[in-house]
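Morning F.,

Quick status update on the modeling queue. The single chain you submitted on Monday has been processed. Sequence for confirmation:
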Amino acid sequence: MAKSSVTSMTVAGVGAVVTGVGRVMRGRLGAVVTGFGLAHVALGLLDMLRPTVRQHS
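Structure tokens below.
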């Protein structure tokens, strides 16, 4: 697995954990934390779709 793919999965995974914590918190702060986590999930998944640039040595 490429290093960028591992990073993308890590960002998405941390976002999923933060989303779960936000759902447990409830209230306005919980909604903010949930949105922050969902944004990380979306960005992690979008980063996996981004083409990688290979450097030729």
